[in-house]
Amino acid sequence: MNDNRPRARGAEVEERLRRDVHGRSVAETLDALGVDPERGLAPADVLRQRARHGPNRLDTAREKSLWTILGDQFKSLVIAILAVAAALSAVLGDVVQAAAIAAAIVVNTVIGFVTEWKATRSMEALRRIGTVRTRVRREAESRMVDSDELVPGDVVLFEAGDMVTADVRLIEANGLGCDESTLTGESLPVIKTTAAVATDTALAERTSMAFRGTAVTDGSGAGVVVATGMATELGGIARMASSAGDELTPLEQRLGRLGTRLVTLTLGVVVVVVALGWVGGQDLAVMLETAVALAVAAVPEGLPIVATVALARGMWRMAARNAVVERLAAVETLGSVGVIFTDKTGTLTENRMRVARLAPADGDEDVDWRGGHGPPEPSPVARRLIEVAVLCNNAELGAGDDPALRVSGATGDPLEAALLAAGAAVGVERRALLDANPEEREVSFDTETNMMATVHRSGSGYRIAVKGAPEAVLAACRREARAAHASETLADAGRDAWHRRIDALAAGGLRVLAFAERSVESDDAEPYEDLTLLGLIGLADPPRADAAEAVRRCREAGIRVIMITGDQPVTAQAIAREVGIVDVDDALAPMHGKDLAGSDANGEAGAIDDMDEESLQALRRRSVFARVSPAQKLDLVRLWQSAGVVVAMTGDGVNDAPALKKADVGIAMGGRGTDVAREASDIVLKDDAFPTIVVAIEQGRAIFENIRRFIVFLLSGNLGEVLAIGFCAAIAQPLPLLPLQILYINLVLDVFPALALGVGAGAPGLMRRPPRDPGEPILTRRLWLATGLWGLLIGAAASAVFFFALGPMATGVDEAVTIAFLTFALARLWHVFNMRDAASRPLANTVIGNVWVWGAIGLCLALLALAAFVPGLAQILGVVHVRPAGWALVVAGSLVPLAVGQAALAIAAARQHAHRS
Predict the structure, then answer these.
(1) How many CB atoms lie within 10 A of CB 690?
(2) DSSP letters of 264-304?
(3) CA 259, CA 267: separation in Å to the nearest integer?
(4) How many CA atoms lie within 13 A of 18 on its CB side?
(5) What is the mean pLDDT of residues 856-878?
(6) In 3-state terms, what secondary structure has residue 838?
(7) Of 781, 784, 790, which is closest to residue 723 (Cα–Cα)?
(8) Residue 565 CB: number of other CB atoms within 10 A?
């Protein structure tokens, strides 16, 4: 007799029990735990176990405080340079200038703070799963306890509708079914048993277990708790999600590298210019003012504003197309994606089971169900087949006349609801059929028989309706129906023919059920013998109508689409072929999770990390992975990232959270997705549709091109300022621009044209280009060269105007500085038209056609007029009255960069055309 006290066990023994308990018998499990299932635990045992294992909770993530996020903004080198410039201005007594630079710091800090602030809520969402009341047996009594109070050894009782709140080894199972879709990706409820399974069985096939975070859909049962809290499978996923961490997106990495380079160049220029001036006999105070001007000129203060707004604009566009962005930088990152890991159910498919094929016994050809709408006049045997499918059924269709609404409002197993919908399509309604054939009893589905039966009164006798696994039903049949009321003996040759039909349907990715019937005189007759086979029904979750086109567009864009699903390999392969993920003649079979070794639930490295490069390359050639675990999904993301590929990952369940968080872009399903998946993702799809991802990728590519365009625009103007100031300082001449004038140009006048460039439409043909190399910098050598040449052109034009005003025009220094300021401002404004593609036409391109550009030009002209003519603002900026001749010089000088730029673009276009020819 068991003494009802859990035995003392070492940590190693306990861990081994947790890992292989699904492969142990009920008796072995109870003995190892020292539990009497009829009595359960005593209070003292519960306290002892809780002291050892802790509460049945998931760890919560430590959230960054708002102060920490705010403090991180001041770690930027760009902010440091501006801070030093503000301090120097204050020391030199220019309070207004110091305040203006400080304002620029505040603007950058606020933008950085707002964009980074995103609480880590994944663990909180995970914790909410399972925090419910659970029925347990303790001291031989059934009682309700909070799920946090469960401990290993507790005997838990289940009924349909209950939430499983710990990992449980089942000891009783009466038609028990569990929805494990959020944990394993299995699209249909899993029938549970008490029989042990092989110890190396994949998580999705451990039918002897019930796991935390899943739900009981059918039947009843009981089990003994073997793991709680972070020791559960769900806890392992939580741990992986926490350790996966948020990856810096390629855009963030590129902007970071760009900022570092700018800071380095700025410091170098400042040191060289100030040193040369000081050695040349310039006053130290003047040189410090020069250093401030150079620092302010070199730093693109408007860049964070423009980048944020450009990404936000892309976010709004994507939201209008059913993609909600949680992390702004992910908008651009989508544009560089090279691999998309996608789920099957609901993303590529409709997530709605329906009858696809009928194989009635009175015909040698299968009947195409044409998308769920049956043939006008099914044969007599086909009608009997449909009637049995409707009778042997526990689902209920929704109300109304619309077939789609009736299915969406159905209750019960989705597979059984699909059978009812097929019956309704040909006028076989369950309620009317039951009125004519009242149900007397039901023999629930049993995994030992793999069949279900219902017994109905029919005239003076009874009609037994049977459905189940094809092999099981076929073995129980003695004959097959060949006409309305006739049947023939099912010979060996006939059985072989049926097995071939079964294999053919399964190879098409269909879930196949067989149906049979029997007429008897007593309602307690044995249901599974002497049956008449009526035929087979193949059910499918069909692909979305637009999925194949979306996959085709991805392939055209050089993006690899890989399916990762919790479904069966044969079903996955069929859908993958249908939507174009794999070619029809592709000989590579889907990779089964049991054949894919990898990290365990604790994230420790497995065989994938030990593979040689040839084996890794072979693995990367696979396009379909089926029955994979959460750890394996995480490993596959790492596998492709290690090859330098930007990875997007779609998912909807708890099992997807670690991989979603690890991927460069995590994409959750908004319709059917769990809170955990959504919190771990960068983007949420409101319509759960794969084509929405393709739209987002196209938008991401357009945004990156826009970002490059406005960065070249901003940096070339800033470089022009640096070159002009540095040149004047080096030859001991007055500076052509004052620091506040530079700030006004950089933060006010430049921002609006840059914003207009950032929100422009993408160039045609973006989705016919391959993905960018993720290692490619945001500015390539060609773009750096272009930026340098543009900057030299702008700086030379403005400097020439400045020296002409000082010399031949004989203006004072203040008026010459004003003329240089106005020339710089207008030159940079017209420079926006130089940002078109070289191959485009001068008067028909994405810049000319961008209405925002024209609005920005009008606004900036107005702002420049304020600076020139409003006394208060003009005094702050150091702007003085300019004579008409000076204005003529300003206009002429500002148009030089535009004219030279357009000529250079025309020459480049001609060379490109000649090269293509």
Answers:
(1) 29
(2) HHHHHHHHHHHHHHHHTT--HHHHHHHHHHHHHHHS-TTHH
(3) 12
(4) 23
(5) 92
(6) coil
(7) 790
(8) 26
**Annotated domain spans of the chain:** 11-60+128-236, 71-112+248-319+697-761+780-916, 323-349+544-688, 366-516
Structure tokens, 192: 């549970």
Query: In CATH, what class is 366-516?
Result: alpha beta
Closest CA to 485 of 362, 359, 644: 362
Structure tokens, 611: 């593979």
DSSP at 41: B
Cα dihedral sign for 162, 164, 165, 171? positive
| Cβ neighbours of residue 153 closer than 8 Å, sequence gap 6 or more | 6, 33, 34, 35, 41, 45, 49, 224, 225
Whether the CB-CB separation of 385 and 517 falls below 8 Å is answered with no
259 or 853, higher pLDDT: 853
pTM, two decimals, is: 0.66
Instruction: For domain 71-112+248-319+697-761+780-916, say whether CATH 1.20.1110.10 is its number.
Output: yes
The packing angle between helices 77-91 and 284-298, to 10°, is 150
Tens of pLDDT, residues 623-667: 999 888 777 888 899 889 988 899 999 887 766 777 888 898 999
> What's the CA gap between 148 and 53, in Å, rounded?
11
CB atoms within 10 A of CB 195: 13
pLDDT band for position 732 (cuts 50, 70, 90): confident
Instruction: Please give the Cα distance from 679 to 775 (Å, whole number).
Output: 28
Spatial distance between the Cα atoms of 192 and 208, rounded to a whole number of angstroms: 6
Which SS3 state, helix, strand or coil, does residue 441 take?
Answer: strand
Q: Is 192 exposed, middle or buried (0-12, 13-18, 19+ CB in 10 A)?
A: buried
Instruction: Look up residue 460 and give its two tokens.
Output: 């003076």
Identify which has the larger pLDDT, 405 or 779: 779
Q: Are 288 and 75 in contact (CB under 8 A)?
A: no
Structure tokens at 158: 């289940």
Q: How many helices (H) and strands (E) does the chain have?
A: 34, 24
**Checking DSSP bridges between strand 167-179 and strand 354-360, what pairing results, if any?**
unpaired
> Residue 174: enclosing H or E segment and its boundaries?
strand 167-179
- 568 phi/psi in degrees, rounded to 5: -70, 150
Integer Cα distance of 223 and 171 in angstroms: 5
Query: DSSP character for 194?
Result: S
Between the CA of residue 561 and those of 229, 473, 726, what are the distances in Å? 36, 38, 52
Taking the C-alpha atoms of residue 655 and residue 677, their distance in angstroms, rounded to an integer, is 8
CB neighbours of 172 closer than 8 A, spacing ≥ 6? 194, 220, 221, 222, 223
List C-alpha distances in Å: 74 to 63, 71, 255, 272: 19, 6, 16, 26
- Rounded Cα distance between 739 and 557, Å, is 46
- What gap in Å lies between CA 482 and CA 356, rounded to an integer? 22
The total of other beta-carbon atoms located within 10 Å of residue 356's CB is 24
CATH number of 11-60+128-236: 2.70.150.10
Side chain identity, residue 631: A
Residue 105's Cβ-side half-sphere holds a number of Cα atoms within 13 Å equal to 23
Task: Sort strands 141-146 and 190-191 into parallel, antiparallel or unpaired.
Answer: unpaired
Which CATH fold topology does 323-349+544-688 show?
Answer: Rossmann fold (3.40.50)
The answer to whether 151 touches 55, Cβ cutoff 8 Å, is no
**C-alpha 539: how far from chain center:** 29
Active site residues: 343
Neighbours of 734 (CB within 10 A): 14
Is residue 365 pLDDT above 60, yes or no?
yes
- 293's CB contacts (< 8 A; 6+ apart) are 725, 735, 737, 738, 739, 742
- Which tokens sit at 816? 């010459």
Provide the angle, in degrees to the nearest 10, between the axes of the packed helices 690-730 and 303-320: 170
Contact status, residue 471 vs residue 502, Cβ threshold 8 Å: yes
